[in-house]
Write a structure and sequence with these properties.
Blueprint lengths: L12 H9 L2 H15 L9 E5 L5 H8 L3 E6 L2 H13 L5 E5 L2 H7 L4 E7 L8 H9 L2 E12 L1 H10 L3 H5 L18 H11 L1 E9 L11 H4 L1 H11 L11 E8 L1
Parallel strand pairs: 1-2, 1-4, 2-3, 4-5
Antiparallel strand pairs: 5-7, 6-7
Length: 255
């Protein structure tokens, strides 16, 4: 069996920017996360934020523009270079960057943060269950972890709807992998269990892209984006829709 490895996006940083950040799914994801985070009391005044697996840092840079100090980390030098360029273009001097993986960061970094972001990273790790305990070391007591991960159950649901029965039967294992398709989609119950074991308590759960990815007419993702966004924001914290989100966003408090 081929050994699992963590994924770096050095080789496809430009493609990532175009296909994720520049798409309706990226815009919707950003707006949902910002809505969720805006409800945190700790962000009502400037605070220090750590973004683990920050990539090109769109969300972190938005928070920096609101007056928060942000430290971006990633294993991809190219992704961080793009983030640095964006920070400089917007005149943000409250942004620092570090090329480092989570395991090394948790083992060597002395500072703890009142808010730690880890978005769309777990599903690219070889051992995602270990990452939760490592993240816990970086969150100050009483602090918040904002965790978003790729939902395996939603992937199953969507592929059944689209008739990809053989793909589902093979548990999504294919010989030729799509470069931006997460390697290890995660079962939400597993992730919540890991969080509880690490010393986090759940504050809220949001589905991200509960409807967007299931539209029969994909052109409506653009033509009806504002209506779609309004519906996502209206329903994505209530069941059954929250559990249908392609991603799950958990806000967790460190005990």
């Amino acid at each position: 069996m081929k050994q699992k490895t963590d994924r770096s996006f050095d080789d496809i940083a430009a493609k990532f920017s175009r296909n994720i950040y520049g798409s309706t799914k990226g815009r919707l994801r950003q707006l949902v996360l910002l809505r969720d985070l805006a409800q945190l009391d700790l962000l009502q005044q400037p605070c220090q934020i750590l973004d683990v697996g920050a990539g090109q840092g769109q969300l972190a840079l938005t928070l920096a523009a609101q007056g928060h100090s942000v430290h971006l980390t990633d294993i991809s030098a190219e992704m961080l270079h793009i983030a640095q360029q964006q920070a400089e273009e917007h005149g943000l001097n409250n942004v620092s960057l570090q090329q480092i993986g989570l395991s090394e960061l948790a083992a060597t970094h002395q500072q703890q943060y009142s808010l730690v972001l880890c978005h769309a990273m777990l599903e690219w790790l070889a051992q995602p269950e270990l990452a939760i305990a490592q993240l816990r070391r970086l969150v100050a007591p009483g602090g918040i972890l904002s965790l978003m991960f790729y939902n395996k159950e939603a992937k199953r649901f969507g592929n059944i709807l689209f008739g990809n029965f053989d793909y589902v039967a093979a548990d999504f294992q294919v010989k030729k992998k799509v470069s931006l398709n997460p390697q290890h989609p995660l079962v939400p119950q597993d992730v919540q269990h890991w969080c509880e074991q690490a010393g986090f308590s759940l504050l809220s759960k949001t589905g991200v892209r509960c409807f967007h990815d299931y539209l029969r007419d994909r052109s409506q993702q653009q033509s009806h984006f504002e209506q779609l966004l309004a519906l996502e924001l209206q329903y994505n914290r209530t069941e059954p829709y929250a559990s249908l989100g392609r991603y799950q966003h958990l806000l967790l408090k460190a005990d």
